[in-house]
Amino acid sequence: MQYDLVKDRLERIVGDSALLRRLFFAALDRLFLRSRYIAREIKRLKKQKFNPTEILDAGSGFGQYTIRLARSFPEARIIGLDVKQEQVDSGNRLIDKMDLHNAAFIIGDLLTMEEENRYDLALSVDVLEHIEDDRKVIANIARSLKPGGLFMLTTPYFDGVHPSAAVYIDEHVRPGYSWRELSDKMSEAGLDLQRFEITYGPWGNIGWKLLQKWPMGWLHGRTWLLPLVGLYFCFAYPVAWVCMYLDMNVGNPNGGGIMAIGMKRR
Description:
Layout: H1 3-14, H2 18-31, H3 33-47, E1 54-58, H4 64-72, E2 77-82, H5 85-97, E3 103-107, E4 119-125, H6 134-144, E5 145-156, H7 179-188, E6 191-199, H8 202-219, H9 226-250, E7 257-264
Parallel strand pairs: 1-2, 1-4, 2-3, 4-5
Antiparallel strand pairs: 5-7, 6-7
């Protein structure tokens, strides 16, 4: 499935309305399991008295994580970096309407960024699996971090034998990462892999099918079905919520995704 086409259509439907954007972001937070994992990690950092001054949202897309970070760390400067000019422009219009003064969206490519020792935290949400030269991107992000800075990411999991459900997305250039592959690539860039949590296990996979795979498949080329899909969510969401809760609390020996954190060596 060409997921980017569906996202582009949703972007056009939502437009520049601050209200619709807020509702859209709230829906994404509830429908996507990865958003729940990221929210949990941000809460964990805040409990640990993590006090960043600058944060990079590497591949900011719609901008929901840039805004989440800006609200979670109001004293920090948040940069949302993306290659798509239209998403950068719409993000900047949104933060202006929201009077969110500690965030900005800029155009940029993770393959060519040259910043050094700037950020305390870099967040990358389902980005690496879209990029052929992932070593270059990991190295660039690592270089942009201050010593002791954190690289938090989500990406598909691949144990080397069984491709995850993420291959359902046509834009992915690899099935995912094992602990060994991600650890080795981070180490090459000067990062130590400190956290590696498998997500989208059996329960999460059910939730993913209920809330993403099936609805996105129905909407592909048929956006007129959107009202019916909204009705479907009323019945599917309670079941999916339980599945996502279990995914985050029972532990997954195998699954479709990774929640990982690397630290730059001091």
